[in-house]
Amino acid sequence: MVAATPTPRTAPDAVPTRPARESAAPANGELPADAVTDVIVVGGGGGGLPTALFSRWLGNEVVLLEKAPELGGTARKAAFWYWVPNNVPMRALGLADEEPDFLRYVARLARPTAYDPTSPTLGLSQWEYDMCRAIYESASPAAELLAEKGALEYRHCPDVPDYWSEIPEDKAPTGRVLVPAGARESMSDGGAVGVASMSAAARRDGVDIRTGHRVQRLVVRGGAVVGVEATTADGHTRRIAARKAVVFATGGFTHDVDLRRNFLHAPVYGGCAAATNEGDFLAIASPVGAQLRNMNYAWMCPVPLERAVARDPGLIGMFSVAGDSMVFVDKTGRRVVNEKLQYNELAQTFFSYDGDKGEYPHLVLVQIWDQRSQDHSASDEYGRLIVPPGNDDSHVIRGETLEELAEAIAARLEGYRGVTGGLTLDPDFVSTLRRTIQRFNGSAERGVDEDFHRGEKPIQFVFNGPVKEEPGRSNPTMWPISGRGPYYAALVTGGTLDTKGGPRTNTDAQVLDDTGTPIPGLYGVGNCVASASAQAYWAGGATLGPIIAFAHRAAQAADREPSRELRELAPAGS
Amino acid sequence: MVAATPTPRTAPDAVPTRPARESAAPANGELPADAVTDVIVVGGGGGGLPTALFSRWLGNEVVLLEKAPELGGTARKAAFWYWVPNNVPMRALGLADEEPDFLRYVARLARPTAYDPTSPTLGLSQWEYDMCRAIYESASPAAELLAEKGALEYRHCPDVPDYWSEIPEDKAPTGRVLVPAGARESMSDGGAVGVASMSAAARRDGVDIRTGHRVQRLVVRGGAVVGVEATTADGHTRRIAARKAVVFATGGFTHDVDLRRNFLHAPVYGGCAAATNEGDFLAIASPVGAQLRNMNYAWMCPVPLERAVARDPGLIGMFSVAGDSMVFVDKTGRRVVNEKLQYNELAQTFFSYDGDKGEYPHLVLVQIWDQRSQDHSASDEYGRLIVPPGNDDSHVIRGETLEELAEAIAARLEGYRGVTGGLTLDPDFVSTLRRTIQRFNGSAERGVDEDFHRGEKPIQFVFNGPVKEEPGRSNPTMWPISGRGPYYAALVTGGTLDTKGGPRTNTDAQVLDDTGTPIPGLYGVGNCVASASAQAYWAGGATLGPIIAFAHRAAQAADREPSRELRELAPAGS
């Protein structure tokens, strides 16, 4: 039985979401405006919601503008772990997390080639160092405030390790992760829970929420940002003026193919950010002098090729690669990576470059598993590709024998030649795959992966997914692949949760110009601005923890801004 | 004998050249200006000189502003090959180079994961496709005009192959390379020759050349670029107004560590661009709406670690890795790459990432050679590290035995721990190196490198450098490494000739805003703007050939601009 090959679905990747993008050239003046408020927050996801809440709790009038029809952004799809150094429950448990240790850990991973424990900034730039200190200082107070106000109550995860808990620089290897209190035991629905509770608090506390508003450009006067113009779903332009500040929290550029190709360090295939994350802030902020930074790196994860190419809005990154009797092989049939690596590092594998052939030989890897893993490791959480009956399994390729499986894989790949540089299986794929399985099975029997060290680090068990219990097994990430079919496969490549580059901000989240001076009135938080994490994915929640910290700092700094008296633009100019 | 370890020299990498950089916020108005001209060209290197000449020959008054005390930029250090598809000498020789074939070749290499021969744009973006067509159309007429006018006479290199001459998409594998006519046989001094002849022509034909002028910002009026402000070496600000256009040709951002780290796809160590190439145009162009593209890729080359770290202005990229009895090994003592790969591809090797250990294991490789290569392959050209007596050999590490050599390498590396993420040799380095040499020597005897395919492609012989002749040898890139010392070594990492990202321009070299509309009066040429080559280094001279093509197109388009009547800024603003 060769599985039928579905017609490949490809989406024109750069088609913008509605309302459509218009010119980002700034508009002049302040009034007349359709609304006037103290603080405008642009974006209603994991950065915008806490920014709006913190601002409101400081007594500000807040208008929150969201491009999508509903709140939540990428966070709504996430597990919403948030990484909070030196958090209150850690301290209660006596888990030490001193700032100098924290800084060494983050610096070692952010810039591994520049890391220097003897340097005053540990090899980071002064800006990166200062931003990391701000994370340490503000993540916990911000998390506590959200919890106290009932907007985001949390559950502490004392046993969840950092993604690099084994390196000597990690002096607090577990305990920094919080999750929304109401999330299920597996924590996979944390985003839905957290977005729901923050949205409810925003409505309760009087944040003026306007969905379906795409901010197109800034309104400026005398060099200061004094508002925005947004397009509504029905095609109207609305001008909103701000007495104090405009804070962007609009996410990255995962869904703009042109930006991805021209900035990211690797030719990724989209990802699981909210479909509205098209990098709007890049064009909007540049004309007032913003300077882009950290544009090369992203929060990376493996993704199933077909869904990434189709721009499936329901795509979830493969945060967990399930199965023990399971391997990834390349087009030759060889294993090339530890399949249980944390997702950000696993995703780098696809983009190794062969300078002799001028190609990316691992651009698409094939996940292969047997009936055992299908029966015992199927799951509909964390983007796993081994799914239980009743779930969308259009990405699954089947064969009763390895020969049949290979034939079906080859047929599936054929439909994607146009987006993989013509990738095909090598003629010897099946025989090489047999040898690969034989070698893997020997490693699985011994519980030791001499080739790629699968199951040697704590984090790899966290993301191992459900497996059939086997008494006395030392390494639950591996089990021999059966000599009998049926066999299953799926095509895997590299994508992003979201990007993490954009305008550079200071530790108060103010957007900076080329001299390092804040652009009056303009703030940015989250994946729409430059992250000081550089290439690192420090831990689960290393996205949202720092974002909440800077949301708090942005709200405090915006609150301190003098309240501007708004006025008409004089006819003759400034 | 263990060689003395010199004190490592590191330079504060982001210290700008003089005059110092100031705020890039645009100035308003047009007059009063210190000078008024038709066309301002900013930058006097391989892009600016031909732009100024083409503009002048069209009858325009031209002011050329150069930041450095002398003309030439990066081109002065280069061999100045220029890659010109379908050039006149090719046609004279009957070498066919049809546009559709050319486009398939460039598309296949620019975007290998997106290349699709059935796509109307071959998998390129429409912009990339159009720009590549412009190169094909204009490179030859531009080269011919420079030659006819005596500004840059050329010699055709009918036998020099493209860097990927062996791929099926290359239908004109040799013949596209021209070099300045007066260059020596080895062509290594082509840049000095070409810059001298173009500079002489510029002076002869009345280009107003002003060196020591650092352009700080644009002068704008009513949304149009009408001039620039520059700082002189003695600290004065000069405003120059342009009746027609301002053309930037200021090079890339090789020498700004902050920009490198925040945009490039790999953590490179500087490179051999002119020391003035600090990315000035990025901050200058953004405030008028320019959109950056191709910021992730660069023209790459290996570089000697010490000189790159010291920011040695005399650094030449390793365009040719000399020696036959020579290997590169990593910190474990293993070969990891074909040492004779073309430089751009060889330079990628240093940046392969190990997601299990969180490090770049090949960040620094060690070139090792014996007395034979020292005696017969020494050269002071093309950045080779095996240098003849009398040359600066401070990068050379010596040992009478492999043990002594390893000790000296380890000592040298120790001084660079702070800039290599703490890189050290593995304890088993010497024994692994012995096995590596043994295996390499077997390959050299057979003339076949089963591991890395050294000497299997035409381009690898072009860059092989001088070697001792051996009768009957099939593969002149390899010879067994001697069992007896002395031995020599040098530390090698990856750098850039220059970067190739910046504002996006159209096929007339006009800088475009976020809607794809030209920003009136603003043009860009060369490495300061976005290259449509994406990740590709198509051939020797694939930098300068396209640059000359766009210099020609920029000059023509600027000439067609209506001549503005310049005026004072009205006090009330426009």
CATH homologous superfamily annotation of the domain at 301-496 in chain A = Succinate dehydrogenase/fumarate reductase flavoprotein, catalytic domain
Percent in helix of chain A = 25-40%
Q: Overall pLDDT of chain A, averaged?
A: 95
Oligomer designation: homodimer
Structural class of chain A comes to alpha/beta
What can be said about the biggest beta sheet of chain A? 9 strands, mixed
Strand content of chain A: 15-25%
Question: What coarse outline of chain A follows from CA principal-axis ratios?
Answer: globular
Query: What's the CATH topology label of the domain at 301-496 in chain A?
Result: Flavocytochrome C3, Chain A, domain 1
Largest interface: A-B, 70 and 70 residues
Compute the gyration radius of chain A: what is it? 24 Å
CATH class of the domain at 301-496 in chain A: Alpha Beta
Determine the number of helices of chain A (DSSP H or I, runs of at least 4 residues).
14
Distance between the termini of chain A: 75 Å
Number of strands of chain A: 19
The CATH architecture category of the domain at 301-496 in chain A equals Alpha-Beta Complex
Uncertain segments of chain A: 1-6, 570-574
